[in-house]
Amino acid sequence: MAEPKLTLTDELFVSAMAASVLTNSIDADWLALTLKIATDALPDVNRSHSQLAPLCDAASEMLVAAAAAKSVAVRREHYRRGHWEARAALTVFFRWRLGEARARIEAKREKAA
Predict the structure, then answer these.
(1) What is the rounded average pLDDT of the residues 29-38?
(2) How far apart are CA 16 and CA 95, in angstroms?
(3) Rounded to the nearest 10 degrees, how much is the dihedral formed by the CA atoms of 94, 67, 79, 93?
(4) Rounded to an integer, what distance in angstroms lies between the CA atom of residue 74 and that of residue 47?
(5) Which residues of 13-35 are buried (b: 16+ CB within 10 A; e: fewer)?
(6) How many other CB atoms sit within 10 Å of the CB of residue 5?
(7) Residue 86, class by beta-carbon neighbours within 10 Å (0-12 exposed, 13-18 middle, 19+ buried)?
(8) CA 8, 14, 16, 21: dihedral to nearest 10 degrees?
(9) Contacts for 107-111: CB closer than 8 Å, 24+ residues apart
(10) Tens digit of each residue's pLDDT (9 = 90 or more) over 47-105
(11) Which of 14, 24, 102, 108 has the lowest CB atom count within 10 Å?
(12) pLDDT at 2 over 80
């Protein structure tokens, strides 16, 4: 069964998460902006997409649970755990995306031949 097509919100969410967890930048303003974008997009992301669901779960841990935590220590723990889960989910997502793109290119080449 084919995955649902990614929406613009899905793309925005993935890009914001990647920009926030895959960067080595210590620019606090950039991190705050990308996390704000991811947080705003999260409710509208298509969680029925098997490649997005794990990233949504990690983002919920990282963004929602961390924001709701009462103490700084608990907030840091939620953020840290979600951050590593998000990195892993993004790796799986981008591998899937690469495979999908390659398959489409190969199909186009075969059709043209």
Answers:
(1) 87
(2) 18
(3) -10
(4) 26
(5) bbebbbbbbeeeeeeeeeeeebb
(6) 8
(7) buried
(8) 180
(9) none
(10) 999 999 999 999 988 888 777 777 888 878 888 888 899 999 999 999 999 999 999 99
(11) 24
(12) no
Q: Which of 65, 61, 66, 49 is nearest to 86 (CA)?
A: 61
- Are 47 and 10 a contacting pair, CB within 8 Å? no
Angle at 61 between CA 60 and CA 63, to 5 degrees: 65
CA angle (36, 56, 91) in 5-degree steps? 100
Per-residue burial over 52-85, b = 16 or more CB atoms within 10 Å of its CB, e = otherwise: bebbbebbbbbbebbeeeeeeeeeeebbeebbeb
Which residue has 């723990």 as its token pair? 77
pLDDT: is 106 or 35 the higher one? 106
